[in-house]
Amino acid sequence: MRNPIKTHWRGRYTLLPTLLLTALALRLLMGVVQKTIPTGSINLWVVFSVGIFLWQIVGSSRATDRFLKESGNIVAVFAAYFVLLVVGILTVFQVADAMASKYEPESFVTTSLTLPVQRDKQLIRVDGNLNWELFSAFEETLEMYPDIEGVELSSGGGYVFVARAMALKILEHKLNTHVDTHCYSACTIAFLAGQRRTMASNARLGFHRYKLESTHQPDLIDVSEELEKDRLFFAERGLSDAFIKQVFTAGHAELWKPNMVSLIKGGVLVD
Known about the structure:
Number of domains: 2
CATH topology of the largest domain: 2-enoyl-CoA Hydratase, Chain A, domain 1
Helix content: 40-55%
CATH superfamily of the largest domain: 2-enoyl-CoA Hydratase, Chain A, domain 1
Structural class: alpha/beta
Distance between the termini: 82 Å
CATH architecture of the largest domain: Alpha-Beta Complex
Largest sheet: 6 strands, mixed
Order of helices and strands: HHHHEEHEHEHEEHHH
Radius of gyration: 28 Å
């Protein structure tokens, strides 16, 4: 029995089935299967997809050359190379889509995460690491409870861009923010978006400079520019120059936890 992989590679199949089945149909099927590939296997899939493409093109080109020698039909040959061009374009789009899926924020994926709502206090409680799944749940909760007046934050930090997105939502809905236990690092960005900003007597806020550590972070992002954006945001939210200077003096490995007096004097707490 002939090995179909080797037979195609050598261009031994007739031209029409080669183009329509092995080249075009298989490439379309690859696009469907790609949607089921988990993010962690994307790199391996891309290598496999490109390898299949090379196999498709080499075998199809050889079949086309053999057909030309046997029939001399140049029109059919041009049509064949047009099909191969389409297959090439589909492959490029598939590879680009696969690579882009690695950087898609998790917020575009439906989440089962739910945030507790304290109706007696009109508060949404945001507890845990600030990631896109948490932000998605935060958005959904705001839609479900449009009369909510505030957010209670309890977080050791998370993604800066998530904190900024949450801050924009807090500003948009004119929500108050409160910390009952702790709010560190990126969490403070969301906290400072509150209209009224309060905290329990034994709660702590922690500030420091951050750094972008993700291996998928685009090279175009400049940490200094991002820090400047937050510096301006802090100023817009009424923080004093002296307090802002102290925030950005602390290194990434440090965590400055100012006392209640410093927070009030620095314009962080607004009751």
